[in-house]
Amino acid sequence: MIDRAQILGPNAFDPADARGLGSELAESVRQRANLFGAASVLFYDKPLDFVRGKGCWLYEADGTAYLDAYNNVPSVGHCHPQVVEAATRQLAELNIHNRYLHPGIIEYAERLTAMLPGTLSNITFTCTGSESNDLALRLAATFTGARGVIVTESAYHGNTALVTEVSPTLNKHAASAPFVRLIPAPDSYRVPPEKLSETFAGNVTAAIADLESSGAGFSALLLDSIFSSDGVFADPPGFMRAAIDAVHRAGGMFIADEVQCGFGRTGASMWGFERHGVLPDVVTMGKPMGNGYPLGAVVTRPEILDAFCAKFGYFNTFAGSPVAAAVGQAVLDVIQQEALMENALGVGERLKRDFKELSIRHPAIADVRGAGLYIGIELVEKSAGRSGAPAPAPALAKAVLNGLRERRVLVGAAGRYGNVLKIRPPLCFSSANADQLVAALDETLAQI
């Protein structure tokens, strides 16, 4: 049996391979390891040393360019001049915590909440998605009076002590906390589409009953709306609805983690949960909303925030500052002005079509799925696993990652077994960029 992959495991550099590096690169790796210790994580068999970025490109010191199909944090493109200018201008004028009035903060909050369903009208700014999900779990526990949380088996939701408990891909050896229940991801490759909604809702319902009988009670279902670390599952649209209905019937809350798939990435809508026609009780944001500037948020209904603030104080020194608001506004401006959501839809559909055509020549490609510019490619072995179905191919995925890196294209990997290529480039990814990515994958698979 293949162990569950860790969140960065498929991409990670193995320090035991440092001897095969050139002397200069080996020395940089050594210095990094000495300073960062066991927490140091680098990517690829041969780590990369970037000095600048622009749009969908990252550059080494000698000018070597790499096409970035991995980093969704700079969602509107690396070092977008409009975002850089907004941050620089505001930083030169004023940057202070948000316990003073400032028009920029109000304007950004109004604009952002207007993009969500009307009941979600109270916003609290954070600096990261981890902070957002931490606060969301505390809101749910306070409002429901219960602690039990349901997440998918390979979920990743952040790094705080509380959020680590609901991020099973971070737990290398420990069992889940007593108040956490893990359910299978909505695996559209292994579960027939017509049964996916029923199966997923049934797993949620069973987990709710187990939490209730354990005494922990049921507080919330926390889902990344694209199921990114589980292997990217987006279809069929609407399959989440029955599960969310079960959550609300049980008196629990649905927390939509939009850190990975929010801000237009899925192409057809601003938020991933909209693809399924569901209404969250809490929405959490992070990563792409600041294009690399640390900016996050939690949006919820007033009665939920009121209940929390009646018991606890909350503030965040750096969150929601004038600079953060200026950056957030600039990101929204660029998404609109450059029609990036529409671009994500068009280029994403083209990529899925071309990847499916590749699967005809390369049987290792078993499934292509996703929405907009968030795509997963499932890689399998020629031989069958115990179930008789093709076995996951994590070693092949790692080889492909490094083969693409040698062709100067960057992608990631995800999924329970680390065998799903994860493609989530900046939203400015063009048709020409898509052609280069597809050609590089074709060459890599042919060589391997």
Structure, explained:
By secondary structure, the chain is of the alpha/beta class. It has two domains: 41-78 and 339-447, Aspartate Aminotransferase, domain 1 (Alpha-Beta Complex); 81-337, Aspartate Aminotransferase, domain 2, CATH 3.40.640. The protein is built from twelve helices and 16 strands. It has helices spanning 23-36, 81-93, 103-113, 129-144, 161-164, 193-214, 241-249, 302-309, 322-337, 340-361, 394-406, 431-447; strands spanning 50-54, 57-60, 65-68, 122-126, 148-152, 180-183, 218-224, 253-257, 282-285, 296-300, 365-371, 374-384, 390-392, 409-410, 412-414, 420-423. A seven-stranded mixed sheet has the order 4-10-9-8-7-5-6, with helices on both faces. A hairpin with a 4-residue loop joins strand 2 and strand 3 (65-68). Helix 4 packs across helix 8. The longest helix is centred in the middle third of the chain and has 22 residues, at 193-214. The protein is globular, with a radius of gyration of 22 Å. It starts with 22 loop residues before the first helix and ends with a helix.
- Overall body shape: globular
**What strand line-up does the widest sheet have?**
4-10-9-8-7-5-6
The fourth-level CATH homologous superfamily of the largest domain is Type I PLP-dependent aspartate aminotransferase-like (Major domain)
Largest sheet: 7 strands, mixed
Query: Which CATH first-tier class of the largest domain would you pick?
Result: Alpha Beta
Overall average pLDDT = 93
* Count of strand segments: 16
So how many helices? 12
Number of domains: 2
How far the N terminus sits from the C terminus, by CA atoms, comes to 24 Å
β-sheet strand percentage: 15-25%
**Residue share in helices?**
25-40%
Given helix and strand content, the structural type is alpha/beta
Order of helices and strands: HEEEHHEHEHEHEHEEEHHHEEEHEEEH
**CATH fold topology of the largest domain:** Aspartate Aminotransferase, domain 2
What CATH architecture label of the largest domain applies? 3-Layer(aba) Sandwich
Radius of gyration: 22 Å
Instruction: Return residue spans where pLDDT drops below 50 for at least 5 consecutive residues.
Output: none
